[in-house]
């Protein structure tokens, strides 16, 4: 083949074209990693009811919530009363945090698209009546907050409307009261079916009224004011046998409050407990594990089962909220039997710890290190460029996430196409979640840390379901985790 030498001008053009090609490929790679990571997300709609200023933890929870404003569809933030703040509402405190968010919103969009503007969020801030509990429920007790709940509920949107209650529930109670007064039975039933309530215990006397008067309403609650028995308290409980570092004041100062821009500076110090209200929306974050339609499946906000709790097992607190038995089943505390994996110095890199936990709080704190690291990473997004921050890995399985097999049948699950948008190394962890399915016996998954696994279905006498969880954790800073839940239906022979 005949070759010819290039002129200096041609060499210059060729060099520029090569540089341009590399630039285009790099730009596309960044765009692709950001877009793929955030696509196919069905955002959960939520309205927050908050007794902000009764305790600094509401402000803390708002800071975290706004970092997920591109993944959770925030339809309302309503200032309310509670047993801790009976005659005051403080919407101005929510506005202050949203304004801090507005200063970092553009930088957040560099990491994942879709963060709403400050003004869009300000329009969702409303207030309930400055009245305690049932004193603010009945004819003539409407507020912009209760009317807003009705407006959003009546929108032509097929998605459920989640109500995340961080204080008293009387603004929701008033909305329900008005709907019952103004809608026919068929329409009322349709609207009630769209509501999904998660409340941080009972913080006024309207919660039990709602449950008694709307028995079909989906309601997640650790009832009464026995906070020590509640699942949500595990977000800030110190657990024996683990480090608890991720909920320490030092960790919060370094990873959230300091050197993370105006939103981090808006995160107040802990007074009673860190972010007691956050579990009411953690289950709405689309991380591959959470499924708020099925509280018994478990996730970042804890795990809950539908039953009528034994009232004798609860203690009466000092809040003054009603202390009375439930009249119908509610979604409430559920026990997880849990052993966590710990690093192993030689051979397989992980092993099961010898300590076993068996209580409802384990259903929440077992994920605590993961969601705290996720919080820290998103705080970094407030100030860092994309290349200088960590982003979660993307688990990929090469088949459907619902599998049907027969007793004794072997089946494999392959996750070898999993990737990390930053090019980080990552680890696999497979485990079964017996409490989430109907088959309650443990199923051996081995090796737990390989990119694909082989499982032999147990023999069953009736149709059973098994939940296999894949957890992918990158080796960036902070380490971030995402999940895939594979539901296996096992049929008898």
What does this structure look like?
This protein has 493 residues and is of the alpha/beta class. The protein folds into 2 domains: 40-333, Ribonucleoside hydrolase-like (Inosine-uridine Nucleoside N-ribohydrolase, Chain A, Alpha-Beta Complex), CATH 3.90.245.10; 392-493, Immunoglobulin-like (Sandwich). The chain has helices at 8-38, 57-66, 91-102, 105-108, 118-122, 144-154, 170-182, 185-194, 206-213, 249-257, 261-265, 279-282, 362-365, 368-381; strands spanning 44-50, 72-79, 125-127, 161-165, 195-199, 218-221, 304-307, 330-333, 336-338, 341-343, 350-352, 357-359, 402-406, 410-414, 426-432, 452-456, 464-474, 481-491. The strands form 6 sheets. Strands 3-2-1-4-5-6 form a 6-stranded parallel sheet, with helices on both faces. A hairpin with a 6-residue loop joins strand 10 (341-343) and strand 11 (350-352). Helix 2 (57-66) packs parallel to helix 3 and helix 6 (144-154) packs across helix 7 (170-182). The longest helix has 31 residues, at 8-38. It is globular. 45% of the residues are buried. Residues 1-6 and 9-39 have low confidence and may be disordered.
């Amino acid at each position: 083949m005949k070759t010819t030498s290039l002129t200096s001008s041609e060499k210059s053009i060729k060099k520029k074209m090569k540089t341009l090609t590399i630039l285009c490929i790099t730009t596309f790679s960044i765009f692709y990693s950001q877009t793929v990571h955030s696509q196919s997300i069905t955002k959960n709609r939520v309205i927050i009811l908050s007794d902000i200023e009764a305790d600094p933890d509401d402000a803390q929870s708002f800071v975290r919530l706004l970092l997920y404003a591109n993944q959770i569809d925030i339809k309302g933030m309503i200032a309310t009363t509670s047993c801790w703040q009976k005659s005051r509402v403080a919407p101005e405190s929510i506005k202050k945090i949203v304004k801090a968010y507005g200063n970092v919103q553009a930088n957040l969009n560099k990491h994942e698209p879709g963060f709403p503007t400050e003004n869009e969020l300000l329009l969702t801030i409303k207030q309930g009546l400055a009245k305690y509990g049932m004193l603010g429920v009945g004819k003539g007790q409407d507020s912009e907050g209760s009317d807003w709940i009705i407006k959003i509920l009546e929108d032509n949107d097929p998605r459920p409307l989640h109500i995340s209650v961080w204080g008293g529930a009387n603004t929701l109670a008033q909305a329900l009261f008005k709907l019952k007064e103004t809608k026919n039975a068929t329409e009322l039933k349709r609207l009630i079916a769209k509501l999904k309530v998660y409340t941080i215990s009972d913080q006024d006397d309207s919660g039990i009224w709602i449950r008694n008067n709307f028995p079909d309403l989906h309601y997640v609650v650790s009832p009464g004011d026995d906070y020590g028995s509640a699942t949500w308290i595990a977000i800030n409980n110190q657990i024996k046998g683990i480090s608890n570092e991720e909920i320490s004041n030092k960790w919060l100062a370094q990873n959230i409050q300091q050197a993370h821009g105006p939103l981090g500076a808006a995160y107040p110090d802990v007074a009673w407990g860190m972010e007691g209200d956050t579990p009411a929306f953690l289950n709405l974050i689309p991380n591959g594990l959470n499924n708020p339609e099925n509280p018994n499946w478990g996730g970042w906000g804890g795990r809950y089962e539908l039953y009528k709790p034994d009232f004798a097992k609860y203690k009466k607190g000092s809040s003054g909220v009603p202390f009375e038995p439930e009249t119908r089943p509610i979604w409430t505390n559920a026990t997880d039997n849990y052993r966590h994996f710990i690093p192993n110095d030689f051979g397989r890199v992980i092993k099961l710890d010898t300590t076993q936990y068996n209580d409802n709080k384990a259903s929440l704190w077992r994920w605590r290190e993961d969601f705290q690291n996720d919080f820290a990473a998103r705080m970094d997004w407030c100030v860092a460029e994309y290349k200088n921050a960590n982003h979660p890995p993307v688990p990929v399985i090469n088949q459907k996430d619902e599998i049907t097999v027969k007793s004794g049948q072997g089946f494999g699950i392959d996750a070898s196409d999993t990737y990390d948008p930053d090019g980080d190394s990552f680890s696999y962890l497979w485990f079964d979640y017996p409490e989430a399915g109907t088959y309650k016996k443990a199923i051996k998954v081995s090796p737990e840390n390989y990119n694909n696994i082989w499982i032999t279905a147990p023999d069953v006498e009736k149709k059973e379901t098994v939940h296999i969880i894949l957890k992918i954790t990158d080796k960036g800073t902070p380490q971030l985790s995402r999940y895939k839940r594979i539901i296996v239906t096992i049929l008898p022979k």
